Amino acid sequence: MNNLPTRAPVRAQSSRAGGAPGGGRGGGPRGGLTQQERMRERRESSRDVGRHEPTSRIRLKRRYREDLAGFVVRFFPRAVPLRMSGKHREFLEQLSDAILHGGRVAVALPRGYGKTTLIVLATLWAILYGHRRYVTVIAATQGDARKIIRTFKTRLERTDLLNEVFPEVCHYVRALGGQSQRATGQLADGEQTGISWTTDMLVTAHFERNDRFLESASQAVIEARGMTGSIRGLQYTTLEGETLRPDFIILDDPQTRESAHSEEQTAARVELINGDILGCAGPTVKIAAVMACTVICEGDLSEHFLESWTSTRAVMVERWPENAQLWDRYMALFEELKGEPELVRRRELNAFYRANRKAMDAGAVMSWPERVMDGDLSALQGAYNLRCDRGDAAFYAEFQNQPLKLNTSLYTLTAKTVLSRTNGLAHRATPDDAPLLVCAADVNYYAISFVVVAFRSDFTAFVVDYGWFPEGGVYDAKRSDVPEGTAIYEALSQFCELIKTTHPRLQILGIDGNRFTSPVNKFAAFSANRQPFRVVPLRGVAAKHYREPTRQTPGLYGAPRLRCCMRVNAERILYAPFDSHYWHMFQQRMWLLSPGAPGSASLFTDAGINHRRFAEQLTADKLRDFYERNGELVYDWSTIGQNEMSDAMTMATVLANLAGIDPVTPGVTMQQNGPVAVMKRRRRKM
User: How far, in Å, CA of 649 to CA of 651, rounded?
Assistant: First the structure.
């Protein structure tokens, strides 16, 4: 028993110093201590929390040493109030094996199934029993990782049963009283505990390990990191001089919606996980890793690790009911009642379901039938309510882990396809049979994103140059000492000097005039007859708002073209409105054709240039659906990530059409001396 920690009351320490505190009553000065020494002693006494006493519930502690599922249910009944499903238990068995013996586990459960909660509780089991010493929590962002750290704090501070069974950890945590600053300098019988309690790192207190009472969690570490933060070289040195390295990695939803749709970002994150993250353990330690993930799209990071690691992938509805007609009526009723108060809607829906429940439930299998949301009569009804409320796209991604594919009757353009469309031409070289050279520029704060395209008379497009200008950005609202409009105007002026030097044959410069209308219009007006090319502001309009002009349309300049035209505004500045939805779809389809084919689009070839960023921005706009409604064409677009090059390329095709190239009938010839009448210069009257 000599090696057992004992609790020494703080008052006993003070009495050994001699006399009653403060002198006077009971015996004069305290052993001749100075006032400074007495104040130091008081400060140390307030920081000294004494040593913990071993648990009196050692049988309970031993019982769950290697039983993760039992530990979760016994110690945290409020966290798992329902009977766990088969998928929950399957996941916990896989995770327990990984923690005890090393291994990698990926889990994709429907939203609300508590996968992150189970991982947090499993981590506490691993730390408290000493199965793992250094846990690194890695999420998509540092902020997301910190949220999980806060959850660990709450569990350790407020779970009474943990305090009874694991006092070697919880005694020192509770002594902080929820104030992290108290961790600095915390003492136990005059010795430093080394506890840390920050937003990014938790370190348990130092104590002598005791196998009899299973006290093994001395100086265990839990640390938070963002996916794109610094990960290499993580280590911690304990008070005993022991160097700890991460031996348990938690990856919580390590991809964002933008990165999931980016082949480049997905590949980079896979490489980061396989290299830097899984390689941060010590040379003799078999690392344990768990990834809580959600499948966002086909082939994303989640699918990669669900296939390559030991995994559990669950759906909310394992088998849909046989009577689809009754459920169609239910969903129609859901739509009809959307405007009604919640109580009325719930009453009507439940009445319909209750009256037809036997037929509506027939054949259905739920992965977790015990999970019935408040107000619902069954888990199946709750699934249909979620499907009606969130829509099929969100439901299948978030609750079925089976994201819907895009409409297969439409085209599918990927960054990989764009990267394969190279034409063998050198950078900035134009084909002899492509006389029209245009440049389109999309203006944003971070850069002017531009593309230079040469067109043949059959609308075949050759991208000869593209880029982002200037390197330092266009405008920074926090740092710039000039107005926004001035910064935009100045950046356009500098860009023009660059583009006319690198492309002396350029005939038209189109600039997006939607966001920064005033400075773009002013720049176009100033540039008239001052630049060797025509400067045209472009204004993209959604398909449902675009109206085909007629000869009587006010301000119409020249003949209307295909879903675009030239107009003169009140300031007598020429600009080009166009149907942005139509032309986005048109230019994306060009990339599906073989390079050099009539109406195709292709990239220059240069071994020193990686076109990945261009390709990802070009495909950031996704066409989800395309149909006719009430005589109008409807385009359902979504944008994930930056799409500046998509906008620039779209504007370039509009410029080609305005210049007289007909994309509908290939082979339409251009005038030999430049663009046709609609784009010809006309001296402005002053």
Answer: 5
pLDDT at residue 681 is higher than 70: no
Sign of the torsion formed by the C-alpha atoms of 351, 354, 356 and 357: positive
Q: Where are the beta strands (DSSP E) in 82-190?
A: 103-108, 134-139, 187-188
At residue 429 the predicted structure's pLDDT band, cuts being 50, 70 and 90, is very high
Average pLDDT, the chain: 87
* Rg of the chain, C-alpha, whole Å: 34
Q: What share of the chain is helix, strand, coil (3-state, %, to 5)?
A: 35, 20, 45
How many Å separate Cα 148 from the centre of its chain?
Answer: 16
- Report the first-to-last Cα separation within the chain, whole angstroms: 102
Q: What is the pLDDT of residues 172-219, one digit of tens each?
A: 999 999 888 899 889 999 899 999 999 999 999 999 999 999 999 999
- Two structure tokens written together for 676: 């046709």
Angle between the N-to-C axes of helices 379-390 and 342-361, in degrees from 0 to 180, rounded to the nearest 10: 120
CB within 8 Å of 196: residues ≥ 6 apart = 183, 202, 203
Please name which of 8, 353, 3 lies closest in space to residue 211, comparing C-alpha atoms: 3
- Retrieve residue 681's tokens: 């210069």
Say how far residue 187 (Cα) sits from the centre of its chain: 42
How many angstroms from the chain centroid is the CA of residue 22? 60
Instruction: Considering only residues 299 and 63, tell me which one the structure prediction assigns the higher pLDDT.
Output: 63
Tell how strand 248-252 and strand 288-292 pair up: parallel
Measured CA to CA, the distance from residue 365 to residue 316 in angstroms comes to 9
pTM for the full predicted model: 0.62
CB 575 within 8 A of CB 538: yes
Residue 263 carries which DSSP code? H
